[in-house]
Amino acid sequence: MPSTIAACKFVGTTSLGLFTGASYSLAALSIPALLDLPSAKPAHHVLISLKQTASLHLRSLAVVSLLSFNLAYALSPARARHPYLLWTSLVAGLAAASDLIPGQSLPSQNQDDVNGETVEQAVKSSQIFEQARAAIGFAGFAMAVVGIWGDGA
C-alpha cells in the first residue's frame, strides 16, 4: 500500500509539472510567435487550433494530477494524511477549471474577414491567461515537491 501511495504522489507531481511546463511554453514561446505571422487570418486560425488542442491536453494533465493526489490522500492511513495533498489537489482542480472562466472566448473559426487588431488583442489576452495558469500550476507543483520531500516518499 505505501508504494501505491508513493506512486500516486509521483504521478500527481509529474502531471502537475508537465502541466506547468506546457502552460509556460505556451505563454512564453508558442502564443507570442503568432504575432510574427504575415497576416491576421492564419494567426487567427492557428490561435484557435492551438487553444483548443492545448486546452484538451492541459485539462487532462490537471485532472490526472487532481485524481492522483485525491487517491493518495484517500489511501493514506489516518496518521499520514497530510493536508498538502488536499491543497495541491485543490490547485490542480483550479488549473483544470481555468478553461471554464468566462472571458476567454475566441472569435469563430468560420470568420472570413479577420481584423488584425482583434487577433493581436486575442493573442495578448491568451498569453496573459496562460501566464496566470502557469503560475497556478507552479504553485501546486512547488507544494507537491515540498510535500513529497517532507514525507520522504
UniProtKB/TrEMBL annotation:
Protein origin, superkingdom: Eukaryota
Location in the cell: Membrane
Keyword flag Membrane: yes
Gene Ontology cellular component annotations, sorted alphabetically: mitochondrial outer membrane
GO biological process per UniProt: autophagy of mitochondrion; macroautophagy
Topology in membrane: Multi-pass membrane protein
InterPro entries found in the cross-reference section: ATG33 (IPR051668)
Transmembrane spans: 16-35, 56-78, 84-101, 132-150
Keywords: Membrane, Transmembrane, Transmembrane helix
Family: Belongs to the ATG33 family.
This protein's name: Uncharacterized protein
